Amino acid sequence: MINYICDPIVLPMTLSRRSFIKTTAIGTAGLVGAAAFTDSFALNLAPPQVDLYLLSDQLIKQWGKGLLALQIMDKSNVNNYGGIYCPANKTVHGRIGDAIYPFFYLAEKTKDSRYLDSAMLLYRWIENRVSQPDGSWLNEPVKGSWKGITVFSSIALAETLKNHGNLMSNQFKTELTDRLKKAADYIHTNFSVDYGNINYPISASYSLSLIGTLLDIPKYKDKGREFAHTALKFITPKDGFLYGEGKPKTTPSPKGCFSVDLGYNVEESLPSLVLYGLLNKDQEVLDAVTRVLQTHMEFMLPDGGWDNSWGTRNYKWTYWGSRTTDGSQTAYALMADRDPRFYKLALKNTQLLQQCTKDNLLYGGPHYVSHEVPVCVHHTFCHIKALTTILDHPHPSPKTNINSIQLPREEAYGSLFFSDIQTWLIAKGKYKATITGYDREYNDYKNGHATGGAMTLLWHEKTGPIFTGSMSQYQLFEADNMQVDTDPLSMPLTPRIELRTGTSVFMNISDLSAKIEKEDVAGVLTVKTQSKLVDKNQQNPTSGELNCRITYQFTDKKVTIKFNFDKGEHDGQVKIILPVISKSTEKFTLTDKLILVNKGSSTLKISSSSKLTLLPTTTKNRVFNFVPGLEAIPLSIDQNVVTVVIEVV
To answer: Which CATH architecture has domain 68-342?
Structure first.
């Protein structure tokens, strides 16, 4: 456990909980401790003060050791010599050159020459295996691989030159400078606002601006400014989300939604906008991004997790963020002088990263280790870069005890509706929930994030997540950037109503046209949803339309879910599926209509008006889903009118 005791951190206390919605007083809240994961997500209230920058420095050193240990040093392995092996994908990822930057940082910080040697080997690897004559780098060492990642590699190498050029020989500095110019030429020539998703032109704003500043080339800086200011047009009109993570970028869905992905926004696009704004002292960009950061902050859970249960690209959701992005610390930590809650958010998320670290590598979710899932090295070499960035850049020095600051979702505010993503956030007592009817799918892919009035998150202060969303069908939308699911009994984690006939699957959580209503009467907050059982193409079963009605009721003490669906001719085939989030080290007791899950200091109690059945699993009585990296006890109910009550006792 980390036990850093620091001077009290003082932050200005004149802020709004949601500065663009209303002003409220700041209360007190607990803080997630920095210990490794226990058998539950229970929060440690009021632990010793932990400093974000000291913790980041420690994690960089841990992760640096983990990456160093995986570097391939066998010269006879010609194609891979100098690369860093990925235990999950059993290959060397093309983007591994991003680790050059933190390796240079570690070489200077620790005076350990091994990091400098390793950085040089990595540079030679990327130049031999993924560097292209047109100035780009490939995502993977395969002909025809995606070249957009050139923008991320160029940022990493430009930061290395800017912050640690003193460690380079004149010859290498010249070589790196020439290579960065080629990369910048490629980005300048090929990138536009329509190049890939919005994260690419936004990242290009900082890449071109940084390289243009380092090399004193005005055209790069001009193009960078153009990208940054164009990005300000991609902020949703009502709620202030950054959009463009999917196509079409500018055409709303039937419900008026745009393509928003929380993970990519907070871990990649917004950090680049912040870095661009700080580098150029561009107040227009910094003012706009502050509001957008505050909007996205609404989805930070009290344990440091990001609720991307609804995002267009949630196929990369890892609970702490997103699989192949860098991290939210860059955006929030470097903007903490504008809103002191940003510092606390960055710290809590960093503590969660620490809790998901084992053997000096960052795992893709809280239950990877307990389910014995191999670690993908991509998470480590991306997120070590983000922590290196905040340590290498001037950062605000907040001066208050963060336990006196509340993040939005630490409050019991009742409910918030975000019309731009057709999603409700519920905060009643110690329960937090997300219910979504978001109807924007990612490009042409189907059955990605859940919709249909699904409860994609139920969370409690003493247990952490009780239910979460996942992909409605686990698919390798980006095969090189995702892990293969080999479990024949794996399933979606989203609670749902489901009909399987032959090879066809019909679920209420696939229905893009679902309707949601909310009411709050006499202390009971109620959300009513109407949906249909449809397949990924929005088609009904051949027997005809099957309607579903699910009502969620929230009080301070419990959550009640009432299911009601048409039987039709499929009586007995339609099932209610309830995957209860539970680490496989947790003991549970299942009787006819009741399950009790031991969460350490508390017990999760779920009772049903009809029989609960444990579905088959491959191991440990748990299913595992890479989205968002959690285990669950899979339960089913065969009746069409059912009441389920969730309590934490």
So the answer is: Alpha/alpha barrel (1.50)
